[in-house]
Amino acid sequence: MTESKSTTVEVRLPTRMGYEKVAMSTAASVAKLMGFPEDRVEDLKTAVAEACINAIEHGNRLNEKLSVGVVLSAGADSLEVKVIDDGTGISKQPPRPDIDRKMHGEEDARGMGMFLIQALVDEAEWVAGSDGKSSYVRLVIKLDKNSD
């Protein structure tokens, strides 16, 4: 029998603002144990926070009867994070925000979360639940063994 190098950590969060910090801390702890450099840990924390806030606000629509699941799967060379909510998901990838228009107040400053997530991790995928609920975002950050 071969030993698997994969480790899974699961956290269930209340649908309340502020609890994204629990997911951030958990993701940071796992990433540090895996040997990620501090700048990548910070990127991951920001991406996880954005994903959790989206799940709380948009997926669960601030319904405190629902919860947000966070599943971290640590592999040999990457960390996958799934943030799961009870929403229906998004029907398509959002348009790329116009940062200049947002900076000049010509567009709402909000709506940058998904763009930010994509910029901070190596892979980002939004998946709508097949049952019309239990949608998730899957984030992957890769460990570059050659850096240091």
TrEMBL record:
GO terms for molecular function: protein serine/threonine kinase activity. Pfam families: HATPase_c_2 (PF13581). Residues 20-133 form the Histidine kinase/HSP90-like ATPase domain. It comes from Candidatus Sulfuritelmatomonas gaucii. The lineage of its organism: Bacteria, Pseudomonadati, Acidobacteriota, Terriglobia, Terriglobales. This is Putative anti-sigma regulatory factor, serine/threonine protein kinase. The keyword NADP does not apply. SUPFAM superfamilies: ATPase domain of HSP90 chaperone/DNA topoisomerase II/histidine kinase (SSF55874). Keywords: Kinase, Serine/threonine-protein kinase, Transferase.
